[in-house]
Structures are given as C-alpha cells and as structure tokens.
Amino acid sequence: MTTVVVGAGLAGLMAARRLAEAGRPVVVLDKGRSPGGRLATRRLDTPGGTAHLDHGAQFFTVRDARFGELVATWEADGWVHRWCDGFAGGDGHPRYVGTGGMNALAKHLAEGLDIRCGQLVFAIRPSDNGSGWSVALDDGHHLEADAVIVTAPLPQSFSLLITAGITLPEALMRTEYDRTLGLLMALDRPGAVPHPGGVQQPHPDVAFIGDNQAKGISERPALTLHASPAFSLTHWDDDPVEIERLLTELARPWLGEAAVLTQQVKRWRFATPQMLWPEACWISHEGPAPVVLAGDAFAGPRVEGAAMSGWAAAEALSAR
User: Fold this and answer.
1) Could you report the per-residue pLDDT of 97-128, keeping only the tens digit for each?
2) Do 197 and 266 reside in the same domain of the chain?
3) What is the pLDDT of residues 229-249, one digit of tens each?
4) Which CATH number do you get for residue 146?
5) 187, 260 Cβ separation under 8 angstroms
6) How many CB atoms lie within 10 A of CB 221?
7) What is the rounded CA–CA span in Å between residue 76 and residue 281?
8) Is residue 248 a contact partner of residue 241, using CB atoms and an 8 Å limit?
9) Three state DSSP letters for 14-46
10) Quick check: is 112 in a domain?
11) HSE of 191 in the Cβ direction (CA atoms, 13 Å)?
12) Residue 164 DSSP one-character state
C-alpha cells in the first residue's frame, strides 16, 4: 500500500515514520520550504551573532504513556531536552524543547523519509482505475496513492477533499481556529523574563512570553511573544506597521534594560482549534480507498496531541 501524507508537520511526520517502520511506501508532501509546520525555529542575525527563536510551538509536555516512551528515546538521543518543570513555581510536569530549536526535532523525525517540500496539493480525486486516489499538485503533476492521510488544518483539508466524493462530519466542518500574532526579538542583552524563562498568560493580551536563551536554544538573548487569541483576532487585519508597534508595546515589560537589535512579526492563521474531535483521527469509509484526517484538532491542541493523532492515523491504516 502506497500512502501519501499531506502535511509535514508533527502529525504528518509521525504518521509517515510509523508507516515507514512498518515497511509501507510513503510520500510526504508539504507546501513549505522545510518540514516542521508549527515546529518552527527562526534565525535572526545581529551584529553580535545569530539568535535562534522558536516562533510556533514553544515546548511540549507528556501525558500519554506511549508518547512518554517515545520522548524518552528522543531525550536519550539528544533530540530534545528538559527545559523546566513548569512556570511560576512549577507544576511538576516537565516542559521539553527541541535541542537547537523545535524545528530541529522535526528535522530528526524527517530523516530517512521521502519528504517533498514546495509541493502544494491542489485536490484529491479518485484515480482513473477506480482503485485508489490521485493526489493533484498545483503544478499539474499528480501522485497515485492507495491511501491518503491529510494533516493540514481542517479548513484546508476540506478544500482538498471537495473532489474526493467523501461526506465529512458536520462537526469537523464547523471547526474554527484561533489565530496568533507573534513577535520575535533579538536583544543586545538578557531581557527580564523571570526564571525559568517563560510566562504563560501574564496579561490579557499576551498568551506567552519566552526567553529562547533560557530555553537553551539560542546563544544570543532573544524573546518570543505570542499575543492572545482575542488580541490576534482584533488586530489581524491591521496595517503591518501598526501590528508590530502594538506587539512591541506588549513586550516592553519583559525587555528590562535590553534594547531590541532586530525583530520580526509572525502570523499563525490556524494556531489552535477551538473544538476537538473526540477520537484521535477520522477515517472515511467512502471512496475507493482510505482517507484519514489527523492533526491537533483530534487528539488535542498540543504537540503531544498532534504526535498521537499522527500515530493513530498510521495505526488506522495498518488495521485495514
């Protein structure tokens, strides 16, 4: 069975690795320049050197025992390390980060897989012979597949499946996503984010402020700010210069005596699903071959949820 996975975020990478380990041919397609999705790390060059900043997922925790076993192997291999055990005094749950940045974890997971970046999937249609799927790309090419796993945000997934002749549950079709506006700042000296370097919801307009140097991924002082969903929605369509000004004002309390050397605004249109499907993935029983939907809208809007949803998608295909 040849499987095409749409999306090289964590859910897609996990599904592809599980299938490849089972000996199944699998191709991963992603419209981005590199795998990772929200496992995203940016470099900002400054006169004093290069800062590295996570601008999507900032850390992850472990609740599921199977995921815990997997993370233990990642930690032993040096792919991830423990940042802290919570913020504002801690809560006993370790926070893990990718060693070298969250995107470094994605690159490790992508090793050995057939991942084709810069490939925008346009549509998924029944193949001409009626036994599988034809995955159409926007450049006119297509791939034939015996099964497809789609891990893109649900609104994007629906647009790909319009031509597939599959009836999707109404609850999935109604799923909305919170947006996130973010600001990346490289500083001339350490800022004022308190130990251990992260604060969750310190202000009604701020969801998270993180110190990438304290996380151990940046040699240079660098902060990442994520605005709250309400603030992000309110200002999403503002002039870019005004958005940067507003985000800079939100970040000011955590700069201390530091000056900003350079900064960038980042946008996540589909940051967090507002409603979760009760199962770890959804599989279609229509059409000529299986189609599975997976991602953080299924097993939870966290890194762990995306990983376990991808795992479940691979298991759903293996069971057929």
Assistant:
1) 999 999 999 999 999 999 999 999 999 999 99
2) yes
3) 999 999 999 999 999 999 999
4) 3.50.50.60
5) yes
6) 24
7) 29
8) no
9) HHHHHHHHCCCCEEEEECCCCCCCCCCEEEEEE
10) no
11) 30
12) G
